[in-house]
Design goal:
The protein has 59 residues and is of the alpha+beta class. It has one domain: Alpha-Beta Plaits (2-Layer Sandwich), CATH 3.30.70. 17% of the residues lie in helices and 24% in strands. It is built from two helices and four strands, in the order E-H-E-E-H-E. The strands form two sheets. Strands 1-4 form a two-stranded antiparallel ribbon. Strands 2-3 form a two-stranded antiparallel sheet. A hairpin with a 2-residue loop joins strand 2 and strand 3. The radius of gyration is 10 Å and the shape is globular. It starts with a strand and ends with a strand. The relative contact order is 0.38.
Length: 59
């Protein structure tokens, strides 16, 4: 099963992935974007395509 992975060295914590994800896979903890529900990812690629820093990969 595919799961999103955030490259923390690139991520600026803008939250775009939170906005575009139809499954609410992402969230924020301590002002950092995190993958809260990786098992709910449907591999749509919206987060990967919309991330302005190209910090998300579906693996």
């Amino acid at each position: 099963m595919s799961k999103p992975v955030i490259d923390k060295s690139k991520c600026k914590n803008c939250g775009m992935c939170i906005i575009v994800c139809p499954q609410n896979v992402f969230g924020k903890e301590n002002n950092e974007v995190v993958v809260k529900k990786p098992d709910e990812c449907i591999d749509c690629g919206a987060c990967e395509l919309q991330c302005p820093e190209q910090a998300i990969k579906i693996e």
